[in-house]
């Protein structure tokens, strides 16, 4: 178990068993004088799993995680394995789905329901993670628990089978991405140009934005994670879905977000004026949208 800030996340992962499960879960401390009552209240609410985007780590969720926990939710923010160092890798989104399943399958076995929240690239991971693991899917196999809702935050839900994040974008990378030729299946860890932080943190106070931009310099993203197609898409999902449209987003413009949502008739939408990182610049409304989705399951 590694610690990044106050986020605990599993890092062990088997390349031979993408869906392995763990019997040991991270524990979230609490200070109640009535632990049995608090445990019962917490169990009655779904667990919230927060999935970060490309080139980022779980600590971007710090403000939202604190607010959700204050509202009585059990919250996890796993670290995705496609966010790497500069050495070339060839990891698809499948390794990130394995991380999610490693976390949630033991929770499902306890009968817990889970709301999964995906930001940006994390939307790909959220969609793929739901396949075969909704409450109804698991009930049909005589199993307990399951995903009860999905929340996308200026994310890529992937509306069509056979599409990837990159093909959803039209097949072209943004000009601020440092990569190799697309779809050649050559191991590559993509970087971003120094000015990319302006797109991610455009509506943060200058000093806070500066701190987050500094962290991007050492972050890389497996190129294959953007190019691997999905055989299961958002239109296959049969649990409630909500999309938070971010009108000030400079990395994934709101017009692109709206176009993706328009292809998924079952998607409920909420709007905010935030940029690409609403969990940092507008954590209250981000938390509100997540709690609303959790209450409506």
From TrEMBL:
SUPFAM superfamilies xref list: alpha/beta-Hydrolases
Domain AB hydrolase-1: from-to ranges: 48-285
InterPro entries: AB_hydrolase_1, AB_hydrolase_fold, Sec-Metab_Biosynth_Hydrolase
Pfam family, one: Abhydrolase_6
Gene3D superfamilies: alpha/beta hydrolase
Protein name: AB hydrolase-1 domain-containing protein
Source organism (scientific name): Xylaria multiplex
């Amino acid at each position: 178990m590694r610690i990044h800030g106050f986020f605990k996340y599993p890092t062990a992962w088997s390349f031979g068993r993408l869906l392995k499960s763990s019997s040991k879960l991270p524990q979230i401390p609490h200070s109640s004088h009535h632990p049995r009552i608090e445990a019962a209240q917490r169990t009655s609410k779904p667990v919230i799993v927060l999935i970060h985007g490309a080139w980022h780590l779980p600590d971007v969720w710090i403000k939202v995680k604190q607010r959700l926990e204050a509202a009585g939710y059990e919250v996890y923010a796993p670290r995705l394995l496609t966010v790497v160092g500069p050495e070339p890798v060839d990891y698809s989104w499948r390794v990130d789905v394995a991380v999610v399943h490693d976390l949630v399958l033991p929770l499902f076995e306890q009968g817990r329901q889970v709301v999964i929240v995906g930001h940006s690239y994390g939307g790909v991971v959220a969609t793929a993670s739901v396949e075969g693991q909704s409450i109804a899917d698991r009930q049909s196999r005589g199993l307990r628990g399951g995903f009860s809702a999905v929340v996308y935050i200026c994310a890529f839900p992937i509306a069509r089978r056979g599409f990837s994040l990159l093909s959803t974008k039209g097949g072209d990378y943004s000009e601020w991405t440092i990569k190799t030729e697309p779809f050649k299946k050559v191991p590559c860890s993509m970087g971003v140009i120094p000015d990319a932080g302006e797109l991610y943190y455009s509506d943060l106070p200058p000093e806070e934005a500066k701190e987050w931009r500094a962290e991007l310099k050492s972050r890389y993203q497996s190129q294959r994670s953007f190019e691997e197609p999905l055989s299961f898409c958002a239109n296959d999902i049969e649990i409630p879905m909500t999309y938070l449209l971010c009108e000030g987003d400079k990395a994934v413009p709101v017009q692109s977000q709206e176009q993706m949502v328009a292809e998924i008739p079952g998607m409920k939408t909420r709007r905010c004026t935030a940029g690409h990182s609403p969990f940092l610049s507008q954590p209250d409304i981000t938390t509100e949208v997540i709690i609303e989705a959790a209450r409506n399951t």
